[in-house]
Design brief:
heterodimer; A: 787 residues; alpha+beta; 3 domains; six-stranded mixed beta barrel; 22 helices; 20 strands; B: 255 residues; alpha/beta; Rossmann fold; six-stranded mixed beta sheet; 8 helices
Amino acid sequence: MTVLDRKLIRDLLQLKGQATAIVLVLACGVATFVMSLATLRSLELTQETYYEQFRFAQVFAHLKRAPKALAERIAEIPGVDRVQVRTAVEVTLDVADLAEPAVGRLISIPERPTPGLNDLYLRKGRTIEPGRRGEILINESFADAHKLGPGGRVAAIINGRRQILEVVGVALSPEYVYPIREGDIIPDDERFGVFWMGEPGLADAFDMEGAFNDLALTLEPGASEAEIIQRLDRLIEPYGGLGAFGRDDQLSHKFVTNELRELRGVGLAVPFIFLAVGAFLLNIVLSRLVAAQREQIATLKAFGYTDGEIRRHFLKFVGLIVAAGVGLGTAVGAWMGWGISGFYARFFRFPVFRFRLDPSVVLLALAISASAAMIGTLAAIRRAIRLQPAEAMRPEPPASYRPTSIERWVPRTLVSPAGRMILRRLGREPFKAFLSVLGIALSVAVLVVGNYTADAVDDLMDFQFHEVQRHDLSLTFVEPTSARAISEVRHLPGVIRCEPFRAVAVRLRSGHRTRRAGILGLEPGTRLYRPLDASRREVSLPERGLMLSTKLAEILHVQVGDLLTIEVLEAERRVYRVPVESLVSDYEGLSVYMRRPALNRLLREGPTVSGAFLSVDSARSAELYSRLKATPRVASVSLKRAMLESFRRIIAESLLKMQSFVAAFAAIIAFGVVYNGARISLAERSRELATLRVIGFTRGEVSAILLGELAILTLIALPVGLAIGAGFAAMTTQFYDTELFRIPMVIYPTTFAMGALVTIVSAIASGWVVRRRIDELDLIAVLKTKE
Amino acid sequence: MTRAEPEIGPGTKGATDAGEARAPEFQARGITRVYRIGEVEVHALRGVDLDLFEGEFIVLLGPSGSGKSTLLNILGGLDGPTSGTVRFRNHNLTSGDEAALTLYRREHVGFVFQFYNLIPSLTARENVALVTEIAASPMSPEDALALVGLSGRMDHFPSQLSGGEQQRVAIARAVAKRPDVLLCDEPTGALDVKTGILVLDVIDRVNRELGTTTAVITHNAAISAMADRVITLSDGRVSGMHRNERKASANTLTW
């Protein structure tokens, strides 16, 4: 170790408080970066290998009923690699530990395991045995939710008959990494299960011998997905095909992809803030160090140290801080990544998912931190190099001050000498003051945006589950039925109000843009499901046309008054042109609404319904549930309460945990900025302050001069930070503006208050630390040292 | 500037017996230096010619503001003149090449400053090592410190040393590289008489025992008795020069 390196280490120890603050700020950025990107890489790698090894299909389609011979014709489509046909149906389940009915998706598998597509990974138990009807494999999340394993039993209403199914194994499928039901935004593991059953048994029960109603296929490399989907649709159309779709529209895949996108967004956006603040702090600390070591640098130069050696010396100083920040950040990031991966492992069902710290992520973190640090310190290092040794030997000329413009407007008597000192200092280096304000403001902004997500989700839940959906449960019938079925439902025990709806799957087309969606036909004057706009005003459904969610209109590039082509993916697959009559900015999925009678008319059918929204007397819900379980016509029931609960559980696990990190991180920024600012002011002005003490200023008065400056900066920073925070929140809203869901731009006053409070407390804490140093100021020694 | 020449004339002549046989080690011609402090322009040197010979001990005498520090800085390659030329052996110190000046300082010059300029975070030994680490054939820091009589305080930090001790560390640091020239800027300026004499004695020994060309600048006329040659500066010009027939030793000085 050279002597210069020893100096370096001692300099660092001298500045340990400030260096630590910077290390912590950088570490926050690196931790977020490593956590997000390493988790992202782990997930991507896991997903990729899983999809590949278990042959996750690339195109999917559902249809009514087609002979198996059709599979061969599908396989002949140029570009199709493998085809898998099967039977898939949704049934009502009667699970022992659940009062209300659940939904089971039964999927047929060959009785003898043969590698095909969407292969199962057997987690527990065994595969089904040929010839033994009634044996099933169940998906892991449902198994976990009900503590079901091999040997367990589930009752299902199959074709109107209650049948006991025996669980022989627990399995995973690449199709259900995120086991979520169509139409939900949060998986409900308790009430949705995926069951795999031997093909003969399932075909028998649903009259599907020699036929199939669901298919999946993979493509040959280089094949055009769009083209194959088009040809496939033509083939399956006569058999009630509901329109084929690619992986991008496969629900589980879509959610996983969306999550990966979010991780990447967080991993790239958040560290930026911390690294920017870290670069700023490095800038002020190194500038100060170079100024304080002016003569030392000059001496080194006088002895023949080259510019390169001086540059390396200060670069090492910065390098050590960056290395410590990256080291600590990587450790914390890995720990957080490990934690969040545990969280993902519960929601994303992969056969094996382990958090892996990819070294390239750490290298990348190092590279971006080093770049940020370089940007922050380049000017200071250049100053050190430019220093003329002869000039640096002379004491620095007194800094030039001027009366600030504020003083010109305010009468002299109103501003005390101390006040003038503060104002002139701020006025002398307005850019530095601006950066300090920005730094403190960023801490407020980080807190605001961190808590904003919770506010938005809270507001969203209130909007969706209290204002829009005012029903207690919704049910769907096996087949669209005549409105008479509704009066049956209305007379079930505990039903207070019942509003039928008609839902139909469609493909919307405008020019070359298409989207699959469902049209929800609601009763005129509906009370239980009221589409609302973003300001929570009730919007009335158009008389005959469509009401689209703004997001869908945006995707399809249509406006009110435009005609939209609708291809009904049901029955005769008619095609209509329907005008868009209004838009509604909602938060969930891509909705299309119509009045039910108008939809019935469009579909040229009588008063037909697909299901109903019910409000229920909670005292009689048990009775209602057991009746519903036994109603063969009811295909599925979904409970709003259950949805809310699982929503809350997931939010509590993810968001709230993040919030505490955010608060800690923001406090670190505030402390780092204020503490460094105060320490540097103190170092720069110790002579001045000591002189004031010598001529009779009290400690309090002297502290007021130093800390007053910081108080002013902090006070200016608060509103700026709140505004920046709101800006970040708006950007977050933009970022989350996806097809799956959107979040409202709502910031609660408590969030603003919390942002300001944490920052003020951090500022006071760092002010207090510095105040103690002012009290310890050695008057004689300070006056004696030459600077 | 040309007007300065006649004044130098006798000085250069006075040095002939020491210097005519060989070329001067330093040769400065027509040096001026103007710089700004804050918003004030200062004419530190207004045309100086000077020759310095190998092994010589010279004292640059003058009141503060006479330009002697500026002259020393220019000789040491710390600063460049606004106009004029300076040569050290076959190096042109006024070519404006920063890297060449750095190399020149590194290889040939030892500095001692009025305020010692020790690195406060390094011990005495480490302060000396700062120089020996980058020198071609230095003595060891221990030997250098022994030379200035500080063997017992090698691991002390500057803050643990008295002013005289600090200045001796600075001298040890300056001579440890075995420089060709030792430039001392008011080496006793911050010291009491007794300590000052001790420090001057060390400088004298370095000059005698190592044969290092030595220039000491001071406003203290008493010190000039130690020199081979005394050059007086005032108001940025050489105002006088004389040769001591007999050099006094440091411990006979008083002020």
